[in-house]
Amino acid sequence: ILFLSVSPAEVAEVQADVADPSCSVAPLDLSWRHVALSDEELESRGHFVAVLCPTACVDAQRAELVVPANLIPVPRVVRPTRVRVLVRASCCGGPLRDVPVLADRRKVGISDMNGFAGFYLPPGRHTITAPSISSGRHAIEIESGTKEVETIRLAADGALILFLQDNSFEDTIKDAVMLCTNKIPDDKVPFAGTASLPGGRPASSEGAVCCLAAGVPCNRSLRHLTVQSSDGRPFERNVDLDWFDTFSDQCQWQMLYDGTPIRLGDLLGPPPVA
Questions:
Q1: CA neighbours within 13 Å on the CB side: how many for 71?
Q2: Closest by alpha carbon to 164, among 156, 155, 173, 172?
Q3: Residue 97: CB partners within 8 Å, gap ≥ 6?
Q4: Rounded to whole angstroms, how far apart are CA atoms 267 and 259?
Q5: Bridge partners of residue 165, in order along the sequence
Q6: What's the DSSP call for residue 146?
Q7: For 65-109, how does the pLDDT look when each residue is reduced to its tens digit (9 = 90+)?
Q8: Model-level pTM?
Q9: Helix (H) or strand (E) holding 72
C-alpha cells in the first residue's frame, strides 16, 4: 500500500464521487504523485490517499509514482461486501462466543455473545473457516457490487479434549483426567488413550479424543463418556462430580468451551517409565 499526496480540493472531489454507489473509478490522476516514504511524512504533509500498487512503480530518488504506459493512471474503487458468520454448537445449536473466524486463512473477526462475527471482504472467491472449533470450510463467491451476502453458518465439530493434571496427595500418586472442549493448557500433559460415548464420532482435530454426535443434545451423552488410558493405569471415576446434573438444561459443550475444565476422574499410580 502506497500513500500518495493529494490536495484538500481533490479529497473533496473524490469523496463526492465515491459517495455514488455506481462510481467504480476515482477522479484522480496518480501519475507523478508524491509518495510518502516515512510515517513522519504522513503526519506532517496534509492529505494522502492509500493506493494498492506495486512498489516497483515508485521512483525512489524523486519519491514519485511512475504509472507504466500500459496502465490507467486513475485508481479503481473496490467496494467491499458485508459478510456475517454465525458460529454455533453442533449438538444443541447454541451460539458460541469468542471464536476466531478466518477468511482465506487470515483472521477477520471474532464471534460475539450471540455467535455472530461481521466483517467486509472484496469481490472474489473466499474460504471462511473457524479452525479452533470446526474442520468445516465454507466457500463463497462475492460479485462486484454486492452489499451483503447471506449469513454463513459454521457448526463446531463437538470435539472433546482430555488432558492430565497432577492430583497426587501425600503418598498417593495419581493424575486427574480433565475434560475441556477448547484447547489443552500449555503446562498440561495431553491424555494418551481412547474415549467413547453414545453416538460419538471419531476425533476431527489434533488433541481431541472423540466428537459429539451432531444434533443430539450433549447433556444426554457427555455424562456417559468413558476413557481408557494407553499406559495401563486404572481409571477411577470422580464420584463427587455432579456437574452433569447441575447443568443438565444447558449446552454443556459450550460451557466447557467458555469456562473451566472438569475432572472426570483419576489415573491411579505413577505413569510407567518408558
A1: 14
A2: 173
A3: 111, 112, 113, 114, 115, 258
A4: 23
A5: 176
A6: -
A7: 888 888 788 888 888 899 999 999 999 998 999 999 999 999 999
A8: 0.73
A9: none
